Amino acid sequence: MAEAKLNRIDLSEKDYEGAASTMCRGCGHDAISASIMRAYFESSIDPRKVIKMSGIGCSSKTPAYFLSQSFGFNAVHGRMSAVTTGANLANHTLMPLGVSGDGDTAAIGLGNFCHMMRRNVNITYIVENNGVYGLTKGQFSATADVGSVMKGGKVNDIPAIDLVELAVTLGATYVARSFSGDRKQLTPLVQGALAHSGSAILDVISPCVTFNNHEGSTKSLKYAKGHLDPIHDVDLSRPMKTSRRIMTKGRTTRSSCTTARGSSCISSAKTTIRPTRRKRSPQSTRPSPRASF
Prior knowledge:
Low-confidence stretches: 240-287
Number of helices: 8
Structural class: alpha/beta
Number of domains: 2
Order of helices and strands: HEHEHEHHEEEHEHEHEEEEE
Strand order of the largest sheet: 2-1-3-4-8-7
Mean pLDDT: 82
Shape: globular
CATH architecture of the largest domain: 3-Layer(aba) Sandwich
Radius of gyration: 20 Å
Strand content: 15-25%
Largest sheet: 6 strands, parallel
Distance between the termini: 30 Å
Helix content: 10-25%
């Protein structure tokens, strides 16, 4: 029997697993959990140095299904952002991972989410976005698209809240949108978020196979796959020592530099995108340690 592959801290992928999932068979949230486990394994992050935060909803059940050795806190509905801010202030040695849903973030928790972005709190924040309230039988959430049809036939006529646009507007310094069914794209995006210092927001379209997977839904598995249009391949560039020339008092010297701890590079075949850091004010939350690549 082949030995399990180990990462740079001698842990196997099994060390990043959690309890058996109780989600509906085929739920997009389970695919996101798989990408999270893979990202932490590939990043060689000690799960005992992670704190998992969540609120209420189907999405907020998922932290039980990965990183069983990590700390965890399940907050009340919509208050995950506020509780995470407090946890980040209380213990700077833990890396916070927040997992929330479109209802928990864009409805009852919208105010807390906005202030977290404004403060640029150090967190990897993953929104598992299915456009409905799965725990209460599939009513539209605040991210449901105009014209989307509910399972019972009702058509949504209220504009959606775009969490990506909102995060950018409020100053989040790492923002991305992905699809739960595209692990090749999602895993490196999670890795980039883990390496980033500041608010890293990932809005992940995650089809609800029970209440929002029918004809007329704009967040069904069929619709998401049919409208998936990859612009380029996304991957994580690990820091490497590079040589650069520096002009000092009329002479040229050569020095070696290494990408700073906490910075991340998301690269494609043609371009390299480096998320910028926003300068923190004295009142900003102090960052906890991030992954070093």
